[in-house]
């Protein structure tokens, strides 16, 4: 039998790690590639950051380095947001920007984390931020600062303060649905059991996860509240119930059901009511994904002979084929801005991750040996499952293919990644 656990929320809806069993392995990130034109940035140690349980400046540096977009320069000194800055010195050290800040403990035990982002070229201030948080939320405060830096210097919202969900398998019989920070820290177990758990999918507000569990000896779709741990059966129809995907407004899911004989795409309310058939073919239609505007559903179908990606209206109707190169294309995923389609294609004897600009139809091969892709909420990165060293792990690649990361753990296999949304 599979079991579920509450994943407590704090502050602005981000998950605490207090319930994490100390024996469970954290995911570690290895950086394998960088962007072509990195932004040189110096990060100073924050004044008095030793009062916090995590070193704020170290978390910020790790986030920026992991993105591949920045060349991080260790300032080698302590600078607060009120320190006098010698801009010429930092320019001479090759830094286009400088990060400074401080951490102060209040009488109520909370921490005030302050920071400034400075432009050393123009000798000016680019951004400033102050957050008051509980000590356990120190890493969250640091991730938010890194997000602000990323946005101010690239024009794109950062995704360091987001979460990821994935499934781990240990000893071929223990399955866990785990939730962690985007950097692999702060892991908590949302569900576990002896039967497979697959296809986790975040709700748009980040408070729920839909997934498929085989605990009843058949695939059943559940939606679990990550605050309380409570869950609800969304689809337990005759045959297979699989591949849940949320509508952008969080009110409905698209699922794959075989209740009428062969797998087709259906829509269902998030509470399990109002199941409607959306696709209608003599083949297998599966792996539905809503477009960013909620008006369309992309899905995999073998109606043309081999599996290809198709597109239909969100309420069903005629479908049009999207992929034409290669004879085996599966697992469509859409970026949050609706401009990019990612999928897995079998070509040259192996499975690879591809991305397509939907406006031009131009394709880019991003990674080999890939399955189960998932976009970051800012659309700049893709996480996917991959095999290496006899284990299945996770990897991340930027949509231009230049930045690569690998996420590993000391025990078990990791797969089925799903990158969570921006949190409010």
TrEMBL record:
Signal peptide coordinates: 1-25
Compartments, as annotated in UniProt: Periplasm
Cross-referenced InterPro entries: 6-blade_b-propeller_TolB-like (IPR011042), Tol-Pal_TolB (IPR014167), TolB_N (IPR007195), WD40 (IPR011659)
GO cellular component, as recorded: periplasmic space
Domain TolB N-terminal: 28-125
Alphabetized UniProt keyword annotations: Cell cycle, Cell division, Periplasm, Signal
An example Gene Ontology biological process: cell division
Pfam families: PD40, TolB_N
Annotated PANTHER family: PROTEIN TOLB, PROTEIN TOLB HOMOLOG
NCBIfam families noted in UniProt: propeller_TolB
General function of this protein: Part of the Tol-Pal system, which plays a role in outer membrane invagination during cell division and is important for maintaining outer membrane integrity.
Subunit and partners: The Tol-Pal system is composed of five core proteins: the inner membrane proteins TolA, TolQ and TolR, the periplasmic protein TolB and the outer membrane protein Pal. They form a network linking the inner and outer membranes and the peptidoglycan layer.
Membership in a protein family: Belongs to the TolB family.
Protein known as: Tol-Pal system protein TolB
